[in-house]
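Assemble and predict.
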Amino acid sequence: MANVTLRNVRKTYPGGFEAIKGVNVDVGDGQFCVLVGPSGCGKSTLLRMVAGLETVTGGEIDIGGRVVNQIEPADRDIAMVFQNYALYPHMSVYNNMAYGLRNRGMAETEIKTRVEEAARVLELSPMLERKPRQLSGGQRQRVAMGRAIVRQPKVFLFDEPLSNLDAKLRIAMRVEIRKLQRRLNTTSIYVTHDQLEAMTLADILVVMNGGQVEQVGNPLAIYEKPATTFVASFIGAPPMNLMSTRPEEIRSQLAGSNAADAGILGIRPEDFVITDQTPASGVALPLTVEAIERVGAETFVYGCREQEGERVAATPGELPPGEIIVRIPGTEAPAIGQKIRVAALRNKLHLFSGDGRKRLEA
Amino acid sequence: MVEEEGFRRYVAHVILWIGIAIVAFPVYIAIVASTQDNALIANGQMSLLPGGHFFEVYYQTIFVGTSGSTREPVGNMMLNSLVMALAIAVGKIAISIISAYAIVYFRFPFRMPIFWLIFITLMLPVEVRIYPTYKIVADLHMLDSYAGLSLPLIASATATLLFRQFFMTVPDELLEASRIDGAGPLRFFWDTLLPLSRTNMAALFVILFILGWNQYLWPLLITTRDDMQTIQVGIRKMITTTDALTEWPIVMATAVLAMLPPVFVVVVMQKLFVRGLVETEK
């Protein structure tokens, strides 16, 4: 059992590219930490640095009170699950799991006990003699997990372990990983670009962008109070609607709040209601419905702001300027082309500074 | 595959059979001639049906050799050829798999120049560098030895390239998983890379064995003693150009014997060979 602490960790590649620009994260003993961010944000690099597969340019990586910057991956007491599983294709399932233990000179009887126990937990017992190519994707994934478990390491590292599975299996494995981690109570760091995976798995969520940490914290706290517009639009699907507070129409409705300093207003799609009334305190917008997406339990209404709406650019999941997504329950929806009014209450508004780097309390 | 109907199919088959006959007939002649009496052949009265001297001729060929031109039992020549071909095939695979491993998995100074040096030697077959090579082998007192026969042919760019290309298709994660599993560079090579290269090695072995077995020019140059000559050189020497009578049955028997080991290797390793050439799954 161990804490993992990253102190001002940096990574600069020989070409001068700065992949990680000073990251500080503290993962407590037994916690499940998820690193989430768009492609190229450095999350995988950071994980590989913890694993020892990438060198550390600056700062300290501390596992269980020991700085491991210069320690070989095998001696860091970590286990890693790779995106493509990286099973040894020529070895049976049993040998795949036993290999690391054998290299450590463990007695064959102890290896057998551990592998069989892991196989039982992961429901792999009937396939111990099979080769990886005879297994389905989900089974391979479980073998990769088994290889990590038998080591009984201080820390599990997961590098997008579910992204090669189909959607249904992904959800099942997600739940299984979480259950397993709770039971073993092993500190884990998990990398994903899927914000849903991140929200459901994490004790602590680390949102990364461009080699930097945007926000660290409890997933729901991050969802409720995103620190930057990047986090606001990255966490939550569909993304938060972000709009400039400059148009008079919006500015007037925000009077009396911090809105004077705010440059950007954010409202989550689920916080809008379609209503003709203007709330006593909040924001109401007239929209023209442009598209409807019905997914069963809920419906997404894509609308265009009626006046020359000027939409603030949000990096991921960006929408065309002036477009607003509204999420309503059920399948009842206005017709395309219909003019509607949507409103959000004051306490559901998110205000950010003009550059999107700072959250302001309304 | 397209199924051809009726007439066109027969035409295709006839053409194929003609092709087979063209290739197989000389082989048949060799087999038939190796069972005939020499006097008959010399008189130009060779029958197209097998004669009755099979055991006699092959016994003499393998254990005694021709009575005039070489006087060396072909059994011994075959042994020489076998040692040479095996040494070349095994040696080439061993050296090139190690050098490919170094080039792909290690970062050392002048890695790329070294790779290009190896690559450039592709353009220099034995025939081109034969004088300097001969000089070196002679100075090292390796004439008339197995080492002299095989060593200069072992260093190989083709095999190194082939293994390099194969190693580059092995996912990096396997190496990383091995590192986390506590396997050092040698362990990774031995436990993971070698087993994965098995089919490639088999395919290469077939090609290299046949290449080594069929060497003619090099053994001709560096072997002078009769007991060191290889079968390919031996066949040529048996055919006298002077007025002595060529012992055709023995020459033909030698030719047949010379065909056997490559055929054997191909037949035995065919499955691995084909898999090694086409396999893509890692």
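Chain B has 14 helices and no strands.
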